[in-house]
């Protein structure tokens, strides 16, 4: 059996019990940052395009758009091909893999008289609840047709919960066109 050791806490002196030294150190750090901010010498003031008083950006006049990293994941959106055809085939993989269950797809058949009737389905309804979306990017990774992308959008607002549910029309409006091969429309498929 292992030996049990009892440890005794060190005794604090009066200054340590009142946290006076810690409070003084914190006040000095705050004062140092305040002085640098007022003199315009704060870290990041010029690089982040701030107002000059600290590194706080003056939103909405100043935006983070130029400073977003390449790996930034923003709002998901649907895209069309060059001829404004839907890329989505309603495979529902994005709906199944979505951790918070923010995506809801209702598939529809493509009519037999359509030029692209060889493609089985298209989305009748495609909704993404932006209040539930966690911007994980799994929907983008799993899409076989590259129909859904995470954009660099970070300004997603609404006045009600209904405004935050993006329907198919809104998702296509946000996404726009995407150039490149689409397996769905490939003649050899």
From TrEMBL:
PROSITE patterns, per the entry: 4FE4S_FER_1, 4FE4S_FER_2
Positions in coiled-coil regions: none
Catalytic activity: a quinone + NADH + 5 H(+)(in) = a quinol + NAD(+) + 4 H(+)(out)
Gene3D superfamilies: 3.30.70.3270
Pfam families the UniProt entry points to: Fer4_7
Membrane-related topology note: Peripheral membrane protein
Residue ranges occupied by any 4Fe-4S ferredoxin-type domain in the UniProt entry: 79-108, 124-153
Protein's recorded name: NADH-quinone oxidoreductase subunit I
Originating species: Rubritalea profundi
Lineage: Bacteria, Pseudomonadati, Verrucomicrobiota, Verrucomicrobiia, Verrucomicrobiales
């Amino acid at each position: 059996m292992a030996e049990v050791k009892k440890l005794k806490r060190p005794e604090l002196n009066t200054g340590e019990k009142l946290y006076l030294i810690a409070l003084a150190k914190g006040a000095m750090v705050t004062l140092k940052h305040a002085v640098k901010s007022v003199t315009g010498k704060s870290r990041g003031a010029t690089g982040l395009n701030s107002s000059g008083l600290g590194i706080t950006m003056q939103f909405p006049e100043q935006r983070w758009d130029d400073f977003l990293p390449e790996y930034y994941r923003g709002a998901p959106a649907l895209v069309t091909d060059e001829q404004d055809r839907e890329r989505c085939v309603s495979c529902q993989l994005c709906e199944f893999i979505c951790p918070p269950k923010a995506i809801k797809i209702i598939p529809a058949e493509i009519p037999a008289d359509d030029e692209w009737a060889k493609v089985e389905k298209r989305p009748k309804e495609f909704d993404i609840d932006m209040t539930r979306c966690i911007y994980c990017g799994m929907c983008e990774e799993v899409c076989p047709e590259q129909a859904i992308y995470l954009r660099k959008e970070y300004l997603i607002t609404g006045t009600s919960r209904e405004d935050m549910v993006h329907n198919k029309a809104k998702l296509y409006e946000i996404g726009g066109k995407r150039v490149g091969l689409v397996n769905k429309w490939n003649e050899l498929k």
